[in-house]
Structures are given as C-alpha cells and as structure tokens.
Amino acid sequence: MARGAAFLGTETAILCGAMSWVSERNLVAAISNAGGFGVIACGAMTPELLDAEIAATKALTAKPFGVNLITMHPQLMDLIAVCARHQVGHVVLAGGLPPAGSLDAIKASGAKVICFAPALALAKKLIRSGVDALVIEGMEAGGHIGPVSTSVLAQEMLPEIAEALPVFVAGGIGRGEAIAGYLDMGAAGVQLGTRFACATESIAHPNFKKAFFRASARDAVASVQIDPRLPVIPVRALKNAGSELFTAKQREVAQSLDEGVLAMAEAQLQIEHYWAGALRRAVVDGDVEHGSVMAGQSVGMVKTEEPVAVILATLMEEAAAALDKRAA
C-alpha cells in the first residue's frame, strides 16, 4: 500500500468512492481525517455549489481529499477551474474518456488525474494520454457499473499496467482480506463506497441506512436498458419501485428521441439528471421505495452504523492479518 498512500498523501491507500449526495463535506473530511482518502462527488453540481462544498470540506480537514467530476458535465472546464482555485491535489474523472483539453487543464494546476478504466485497451489509452493513476471497478460496485466482475478485471489488468502507474481496485470490496488479495496482485490500493455509505458521519437518511442493513448481496441489482439506441450505463441499486420508475423514464426519453425533440447528448444528460434526483430522494429525503438506493453487492456486509475511523481500522487489521498468514 506504500505506493498508493504516497500517491494520495495519506496513511492508508483506501479511497472512498464518490457517491452523489453521500460523499459530501462531512463524510469526505471524516475519511481523510481518519487516514483514508475522501472524494467529493460533484455529480450534477454547478461550479458555485462545488466551490462552496470544497471550501466547507477544507474547513473540516487539513488532510488531502479529491474531487470526482463527471466527464459529460456541460460545465466540466469550469468545475476543473474551481478545483484549481482551491488547489485540490487529485481530480477523479468518471463517466467516459476525458474530453479534449480536460487532462491538460487539470495538470496545469499541479493536480494529479485519476481515471476509471473498465477495460485493458482503455487503460492503455489513458496511460498514453498521461493520467497519473487508474481505478479498475467491477460490476459488483454500486451506482454506474460496467459488465465485467472485479476479480476478472484485476487478473487481466494488474499484471499489464500495475508497474506503469498506481492502480486502485474497486467493486464489491467489503473486508480487509479482499484488500490484501488485490494488493498481493499488484494494486496500489482500493476504493470502497458501499462500506462507508452508512458510517456514523454519513448524512444519509436513517431510512437509507436501514435499507442497507436489511439488504443482502442479491438485493443489489443492475438496472435494465430497454432501448438499444439509448445506451444507458447500468446502475446497481437495491430493488424497489424506483426501478420501475427508471424503466418508465427510459421509455419517455426514447420517445423524445423518436420524435426528434431531443438530441442524443441531451437524452443521456436527462438520464443522468434522473439518477441524481432519484438518489437525492433516497439519500436526503429517505424515500427508499421510490428513490434510488444505490448500493454495491458488498451491502450484505454492512450491518451497523460505525464511525469511519472504526471501519478503516477494521479493514486494515483484516488486511494485515491476511497478509501475515500468507507470509507465515
């Protein structure tokens, strides 16, 4: 983990996945203060909102933290400028290949760029383009997911790219033994989201947390795409009436495409905004039946509300014990 920790400027190379409405100032600062690496989920925020969120996080921690930006955000370059003004040390780009000029703009401020690579060919392309670190995330993760499992991605990609730059593994990680396994395979660290969503410091509504505590791995299901012309990145969440609402939303957007009312880019943006709204209903308002309760398959390992420091300490103890056993 030394390589990942040195890259992040932290005690442990454990990132918190950026969860919209959950990964805000309180959880981010708590994770960074406890020796991990908190990441603000910018999501659909305006530059003004992100500016306020970064300032509020800096008031709660002097430790390093990052900001996750969605590549399809219409004001991406303005958001990058906000990060630069605040001298944010690490910017995570999610949601597709970085648009032209975005990497240069981030690096010009002295920040490191972390990108998601759901396939080996894409990872190699991103390395050539100059990214500083990669996250390889499997389909067990919560929120937006790719089609391949974490263990397969790790086996295929780590031997090929782990020497070139720090690689963080994500998706379905709930215990330290799994962390030890990926470190053994060459990862520089890991990223977890679901495990932190119900931390004491998380502002998620009590109903949202209760839904996690009741759920098993098989309750966290991926959304279905209903129209091949509307490429919707699947989202993993706990099954509820909100899943049906999303199917209806896709039909509505597909019809607008048919009628020529919407362009493809705008259609995809509408889907993104739908998820942001549905997630807010669950996380903030506590409507876990009609909102989107995004969760990874590790949700079955989330049993109770614990402080972030306890979660991190437990993960590290489990990982250390597993590595000691292998060395014996």
UniProtKB/TrEMBL annotation:
The keyword Oxidoreductase applies. Keywords: Dioxygenase, Flavoprotein, FMN, Oxidoreductase. It comes from the Bacteria. Gene3D superfamilies: Aldolase class I. Transmembrane segments: none annotated. This is 2-nitropropane dioxygenase. One of its GO terms (molecular function) is dioxygenase activity. Coiled coil: none annotated.
